[in-house]
Amino acid sequence: MKYRTLGRSGLKVSAVSLGSWLTIGNTVDQAGTARLVQQAVELGINLLDTADVYNRGEAEIALGLAIRGLRRQHLVLASKCFFPMSEDPNDRGLSRKHVVESLHASLRRLGTEYLDLYQCHRPDPEVPLAETAMAMDDLIRQGKVLYWGVSRWSGAQIVAAVQLCRAEGWHAPIANQPAYNLLDRGIEDEVLPRCAEAGVGQIVYSPLAQGALTGKYRAGSPPPDDSRAANPRINQFLEAQLTPERLARVARFAELCRRHGLAPAQVALAFCLRRPEVASVIVGASRAEQLVENAAAAELVVPPELLAALERDV
User: Fold this and answer.
1) DSSP state of 151
2) Strand ranges (DSSP E) for the chain?
3) Phi and psi of 279, rounded to 5°?
4) Sign of the dihedral through C-alpha 264, 268, 273, 274
5) Distance between CA 307 and CA 309 in Å, rounded?
6) Cβ neighbour number for residue 217 with a 10 Å cutoff
7) Of the candidates 8, 12, 40, which has an alpha carbon nearest to the alpha carbon of residue 24?
8) Does 117 fall in a domain?
9) Which of 45-49, 86-90, 106-110, 228-232 has the lowest mean pLDDT?
10) CATH label of the domain that carries residue 66
């Protein structure tokens, strides 16, 4: 496993990280979660990403049980807050009240005294940026959070947060968690360059386009029985990934990988990691063998001729 520095900080994260959206605490049972986490640690994966809203806290609970007995200081444990956790009007957003109370609830579910990285899951236009940033700074000074970051914020919003924190002497965010993959490259134009200038690193999710870039889905064929698309519990976000146009692009991608004797999933992850701004790619493996294959992408350098073909034809 290779490790990269996260933003303008001293924190080292594994180039491939383990996520928990739709899997841990949901379609993967506790025994399976324990195997995944153990496999991740054996592979050198140190970044474990979750959020309070993932299956309404169940992902954090399952992950917390799985890390019991592991050396906490060897893990980079990340969670998030923003989305509603109940019908209460204050149990949502990025107010000081919700940020602080959500952090404490996440710590209880995870069974840990601190988070290495705490992320604002979305921007909140109803709350002053200073209120959120000050709350994060307070949590860091209390030792309950080591670093903070954001997810799905624009480049301008991230720069504004960094500038505000530096002006006020507060701890500035060091990470952003956007969607990024070969089919969805929107962050390259604004988010990546502005974050690079601000010292904010990227931990990208959906690097396999929710499995589409593994090549398992083909136009005119039903999805494999064990795939995400075949599972009604977790396939609600896949429709946009499996359009005829995108499946045609995936087919071209898979054929290019085949010609070079490379696994599509590994190439897709390595494609994201080719960018120095990307510190880690989050994979949502449900089986240990998937995690082994995905982790190997940290060592893969996409051949220049294949990279040129991907840029041109996919």
Assistant:
1) E
2) 3-5, 12-14, 16-18, 47-49, 76-81, 115-120, 145-151, 175-177, 201-204, 278-283
3) -85, -35
4) positive
5) 5
6) 25
7) 40
8) yes
9) 228-232
10) 3.20.20.100
Out of 3, 54, 205, 217, the active site residue is: 54
**Distance of alpha carbon 19 from alpha carbon 24, whole angstroms:** 8
Task: Report the alpha-carbon distance of residue 255 to residue 275 in Å, rounded.
Answer: 23
Would residue 69 count as lying in a domain? yes
Alpha carbon distance 196, 171 (integer Å)? 17
Backbone angles phi, psi at 226, to 5 degrees: -95, 15
Cβ atoms of 145 and 211 within 8 Å: the answer is no
207 CB contacts (<8 Å, ≥6 apart)? Answer: 180, 181, 213, 268, 269, 272, 281, 282, 283
Q: Which residues contact 34 (CB under 8 A, 6 or more apart)?
A: 65, 66
* Residues listed for the chain: 314
7-16, 122-131, 214-223 — which is least confidently predicted?
214-223
pLDDT in tens, 161-213: 999 999 999 999 999 999 999 999 999 999 999 999 999 999 999 999 999 99
Question: Is 114 designated active site?
Answer: no
Q: Are 241 and 270 in contact (CB under 8 A)?
A: no
- Which residues is 14 bridged to in the sheet? 3
| Whether 78 contacts 49, CB under 8 Å | yes
Q: Is residue 250 part of a domain?
A: no
Write out the residue range of the structural domain in which residue 65 sits: 3-208+265-302
Q: Report yes or no on 39 lying in a domain.
A: yes
- Residues 58, 30: contact at Cβ < 8 Å? no
Residues 285 and 268: their CA atoms lie apart, in Å, by: 15
What the block records as the tokens of 34 is 């324990």
Residue type, 255: E
> How many independent structural domains does the chain possess?
1
**Cα(247)–Cα(243) distance, integer angstroms:** 6
